[in-house]
Write a structure and sequence with these properties.
The chain has helices at residues 13-18, 85-88, 110-120, 124-127; strands at 6-7, 21-24, 42-45, 59-66, 72-77, 91-94, 97-100, 130-134, 145-147, 150-153, 159-162. By secondary structure, it is α+β, with helices and mostly antiparallel strands. The longest helix is centred in the last third of the chain and has 11 residues, at 110-120.
Amino acid sequence: MKPELRQFGTLTAADFERVPVWLACHVADYEEPWYDETDEETFRPWGGELPVEPQGGMYLVKATATLADGSSFPGFVTPADTNELGLLQPQLFAGTAMFSFWGGVMGVPQEQRAAFYKSLGKASASVFPIRFTVAPGLVKDQAAIQVDGFYRTARGGNAVVER
């Protein structure tokens, strides 16, 4: 039976309330008859044992994002055996939008940063640092993640934080 298939960009906070762990189909379900319907952005509910281990696949795992002012929002992370933000990819849900903090070489565009602050109704001093905490029992050995702003990669591979 074909599972529920969702594209990354269509996942919502309600999806993570319903199913706290999602698995990337394109790296796990090669033998499934519906595999050709998937791509690198397709995820399905994880039905296996918990906690998951980061090296066991590419997962999206429910987390809580706690802002500097103590308010919290739903979110998720991609568990990894590292603290590199580019691999952990924390995401925060505010209103009906999902926000990312890793922008790679190009960075997170100013329009997206402005939309983020507007959706929260807060200034950067009330927002950062954000602490992402994975829901208990979902990931083996996953520590909390701190996000200090919007990240981009500068020359030489160094991360630059923008607010």
